[in-house]
């Protein structure tokens, strides 16, 4: 999985926002706000990662068990898929 090109994440006043750039503005009109863990996953997905790599990196970064991390990551990835922001 990997974030599609044409989207950037920026930190704005202790919040993280994702906005489209270039041609992506035609396909996606708006912005997405992320919390800290969402921003971490977004950064991970800037490079090709599979679910196992995401879970491993997430549990190293945050004090969360593997089952909870996997569930939360899968929900996050589904939202990105629904918005057509990632290539699987």
Report on this structure:
By secondary structure, the chain is an alpha+beta fold. The protein is 47% helix and 22% strand. The chain is built from 4 helices and 5 strands. The strands form 2 sheets. A 3-stranded antiparallel beta sheet has the order 2-3-4. It is globular, with a radius of gyration of 13 Å. The model has no long low-confidence stretch (mean pLDDT 94).
Strand percentage lies at 15-25%
Radius of gyration: 13 Å
Q: Helix/strand/pairing class, anyone?
A: alpha+beta
CATH topology-level fold name: Arc Repressor Mutant, subunit A
- Let me know the CATH homologous superfamily: Coenzyme PQQ synthesis protein D (PqqD)
- Straight-line distance between termini: 4 Å
Question: What letter string, H or E per element, gives the SSE order?
Answer: EEEHEHHHE
Low-confidence stretches: none
**Strands, total number:** 5
Q: So how many helices?
A: 4
Percent helix: 40-55%
């Amino acid at each position: 999985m990997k974030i599609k090109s044409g989207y950037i994440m920026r930190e704005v006043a202790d919040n993280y926002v994702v906005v489209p750039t270039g041609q992506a503005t035609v396909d996606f009109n708006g912005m997405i706000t992320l919390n800290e863990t969402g921003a971490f996953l977004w950064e991970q997905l800037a490079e090709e990662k599979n679910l196992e790599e995401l879970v491993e990196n997430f549990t190293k970064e945050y004090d969360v068990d593997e089952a909870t991390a996997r569930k939360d990551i899968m929900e996050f990835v589904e939202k990105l898929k629904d918005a057509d922001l990632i290539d699987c």
